[in-house]
Design goal:
With 263 residues, this protein is an all-alpha fold. The protein contains 10 helices and 2 strands; from the N terminus they run H-H-H-H-H-E-E-H-H-H-H-H.
Amino acid sequence: MKTILYSPLSNLLFLLICLIYCYGFYLLVQSSIWIAFVLTLILPTIFLPLIQPVDNSNEIKRILLLETGFNLLCFFAVSQWISVEYIDKALVTFFILQASGFMLVQWKKRAYLSLCLSVFLALAIGFWIRGSGQTLLLNDGELLIFGKSAPWQLMIIYGAWLTQLLFVEYRHVLPKMTLVICHIASFSIAVSADDFFHARIITASHLLFLSLCFNFKLREWGGKDFVIAESFSGYVTAARVQCGLSIVLVCVAAISFSGLIIM
């Protein structure tokens, strides 16, 4: 009985810890421009020696580098050291580079359904940016990217894209659920925040850095039964389920994108 209960309880406990951690981290980032600067830029630089060799480390480092650039842009925006007009242009460049990077990797892997989701996400972000204005500076450490909250359709598309990433592209990490739970926590905080992408990228980049330092994707991390979902993973990684899940997610993204255009 103890063995049966340990894995699901450890999943719930880890989810709770991640939610509290991400929420607290984002609150700290928003509390002060200088706290944000230290947490998102200085500390990762100081702890660079802790980075370990991990699976797909080059891809993770590429994403982390871009998201660190995003954090730097947010700092410049809040500090008002650079005009918001230039910040917005740089943010557009960031989204283009981020989307292009994912699509290029997926094209090389021949992950065409994943590529479709990335295309829908990129188009949705572009549509959102086109209908938005300038980034707004709110309180010390707070901002609203492009001056407009992300529409719920865009968040659904992002959720579909993230689900594909975690359960299809990164299925080799399963049954270890640490990576999945970390991103679920980050996504949950982002959905509840005023600025979806700011909250998502701030928390996700921090978690990416931690994953490079502690490699918590390993089955042995925390114990071989810690944050494990054997039955669920066995089901979701089956070939037929993988294909069906991807098709459903693409359909969800397509419908949501249609709703975004019509709105």
